[in-house]
Amino acid sequence: MSFVLFFMGVAILCGFLAGKIVNKFRFPAVVGYLLAGLFLGPSFCNLLGTEILDGVGVLNDLALGLVAFIIGSEMRLGVLRKMGKGIAAIILAESFGAFLLVGLGVYLLTHKVYLALIFGAMAPASAPAGTAIVLQEYKAKGPLTNALYAVVGLDDGLAIIIYGFAIAFAKLSLTGEAVSVQEIIRGPFLEILGSVLLGAVIGYVTGYFLRRIHKKEEILAVSLAAVFICTGVSKYFHFSLILANLAMGMVFANVFLITNRRSVNVITSMILPVYIMFFVIAGAHLQITLLPAMGFLGIVYVLCRAGGLMGGSFLGASISRAEPVIRKYLGLGILSQAGVAIGLAIMVTREFSPMGEIGQNIAILVINTIAATTIVFEIIGPIATKIAISRAGEIGKSKKR
To answer: How many structural domains does the chain have?
Structure first.
């Protein structure tokens, strides 16, 4: 553990260089960060072994908190009003599209309702960091970019609700025990409500105090402290740190607009090393040996999830008469999947492992399949996002605030 700082430095440097190399081939830098982590991790060099990864795991929470805060800061009410009810229709359609198509595909393959429900519940969860870093790297701006920020920021809330219901009915299918609708609703509802209230309170208090601060280094100190506190309290109460920091950023941006701009500018000026470390760590956690293990089930999951997200977002955008670029390309920009899905898979292991041999087999199958498919979505997700904003003509449109 005494060499953790050394390995962090090596990871950041390797990730930075790998990002520059993949840029030469017109890939997003995040792909380079992930590949650097994959190379440095247990799959190849094992320079970033399990002990080192455990020692720097807190950086994952910090990075996700910062990403969610920045995404929330981009979600101003004026922009959301222009989108109208369309953004809600898109989020509902793409989330349930992924859930239903994955559930159907898994059922046709396995003929097991409980597996269809469990894997369907994994599908709607997105990885906002993978999408957001690409949008920021290419300075994207426009209707598609605004929609992407809103969808990847908000759909995890719906994913939590879908997961709560699906897992309850999966247990019912497996054991035949009665299901309490009240119990099903209570957990996700409290998690979402608690996350939003926590973030809103911290966002308002932080914005109020930052109004009188003008030095960049002082703004940075207070802003980071707010993200740290929001993330730490979220973890303690088992809230969603993504939703909490998202709510903090939204309140901050809509109540204290000028203060928010200064805060986001100073955070983005120092966030690159955190991003690099986050994705290098994510890459190091990816185990390439799991890819063959995912088999037909993993292939069905990947294809059905991608089809459900793209088809659902197209349907939702068409119903709500969203702009053509949103209808055509939004689905490409939301394919990334990582931390939230892994977190849900871990929750499945906790829920089903005590249920005897069949429960343990389910837990092993789910965690291995989701871990393996995450490798695929972590790589293709950012690339697809770049393709989407490129075809929409929104690259390089953002000006520094």
So the answer is: 1
